[in-house]
Amino acid sequence: MLKQVGLALCGAALGVCALAADAANLIPVDAFARHPAISTPRLSPDGQYLAVRMDGDDGAHALVVFKVSDLSHPVSMLRMPKYDVPANFVWISPTRLIIEKGHEYGSIEKPSLTGEILATDYDGTNQDYLFGIDAVKYGRRASTRGSDRGWGFYDGQPDQTDGHFYMAAESWDSNSQSSLYNVDGVHNIRHLIGDIGVSGMSFMVGKDGQAHYAFGRNPAFDYVVYHRQGSGWTPLTTAQVGISFDPLQSTPDGKGVYAQYSADGGPSSLVSMAEDGSDRRQIAPAGFGSVAYIEWSAKPEQPFATALATGVPEPRYPDPNAPMAKLHRALSLKFPGSYVHFVNFSDDGSELLFGVSSDRTPGTYFLINTRTYKVQKLFDVEPWIDPAQMAERRPMTFTARDGTPIEAILTFPRGVDPSNLPMVLMPHGGPIGIRDDWFYDGDAQFLANRGYLVLQVNFRGSGGRGVNFQQAGFRQWGGAIQNDLIDGVKWAIAQKFADPGRICVFGASFGGYSALMAPIRAPGLFKCAVGYAGVYDMALLYRKGDTRQSEAGRNAMRAIMGADEKDLDANSPDKLADRIDVPVLLIHGEDDQRAPFAQFKAMTAALDAAHKPYQTLVKPGEGHGFYSEKDNIELLDTLQAFLEKYIGKGR
Length: 651
What we know:
This protein is α+β, with helices and mostly antiparallel strands. The protein has a domain at about 390-645: Rossmann fold, CATH 3.40.50. It has 14 helices and 34 strands. It has an eight-stranded mixed beta sheet with strand order 27-28-30-29-31-32-33-34, with helices on both faces. Strands 1-2-3-4 form a four-stranded antiparallel beta sheet. The protein is globular, with a radius of gyration of 25 Å. It starts with 6 loop residues before the first helix and ends with a helix.
């Protein structure tokens, strides 16, 4: 349940868990099973209030507002229906916020935006329903909002915080239109400022309050960029904007644009350029990875620091003498081994909310006055986690069999010789556009705390290394992607990090698919396999699963997976169950919508038919990943026992 507690009290009450863990040298399972109580803070434009997301242990969520001068008691709490979350919230005035509503389908997926937008004053009054299917029930202008049958998304706001924001919208009844509105979030009035006859588009609004770019993946799953020319839209060519182009925002003078850009489809750099693609200037170059982390100054916003998607994020300063670069560098020196992220400023730039995180801590948030440099600690994301008890995460690279360099992240158990260790390969979900990074990973830390080396591989298809690398994973679910994972395991063995006789694979979602597929592709390499909320029958995704419900979703599946049923079957674990030569543990929630429970049934039926032994953990009421703390504790206990049985206890 959600509890009305202050930020300071949360940290003090929960810190006792870390002390108990330190004494035992083995951190209790529940420390890795619980959810952060408070997250994603946002500072109000006048610097007086702090809005945060608060999560309960029973699927309850709320938007909570505190006064910065008194963090012990909330000013207001906007509770959401069970499993609905304030997925994104933005201050549109010193006293008013808008909330993009999301729905949590499970713990291993980010909440999916529902397309609904709400608004509230800081004190919980004047609540309104601005856009969505229920506008005719709850909005102030219900009588005129019967056509709000579609999706609405926050798409920026004017430089001057005046109660307005920009909203991209798309009707459920149209596959050929994207619209952009300037919305008065105080009076619930909207004005159309741009539209284009292509669905699925996001917009970039210029300093003049008009849409300058429309961009995104069209229904055919092609990435397209259009530039406003007079009253119409002109598609931009690769000669103008390269293979990869993502407009971020206008430059302070309004004459150009900041963008992430790649001429040839490799990792993206940060550039400034004229809107037609001319006068391009590189602000921060790409490296092995794309420029992924960008720090922005107070208004008028300018990028002053960047870091790459790969490796340990090291800030790079285009102008080291810029005031914000100096402040960022000074704060980074105060938190060695961590990355400092500037969340947002007050409108006058005098107050700054920033976060500090690393491979060993989920994060801590602070407030600093940029004139007096007085710092106030706000809260720890997971105050029960003691960074001193966490394991090092080390990004490295290896070469795949075809010569492609691949990033691997190894999490080493603390206090042991980092050689010849029992190892768990942990492939990530997605698979396309998702990546593992250096930052804190609860599953990897749990396994490392139990003495296992953890290997995560950013196989081709993963994000962070450009369009070409990402598209190299298309239609390679059971092919090159599995080769990269297997090559990563062989590399870890060759480096003498891993004991070749004690290796298991554990993954969730697409990682669950890989957990069953990797032993099929590399017989004898693994000693056990754990699939969690996995996809085991690729063709079944076309008949059951939430992605198939829209034309864009189906086209994405065809591009990413392929659609030939023979090929799908040839790369589906349930069709190859007779080749699985390791003990299997399958974990699934009965209410999973992303990888429906039919996937679990297909895999168990195939294992039964092939007379293969397996173990299961199934929970009713759970979706794509277990949510309840109790179920997650059982999951981790079951996983630990399974690993100990087949590859022995960790060191």
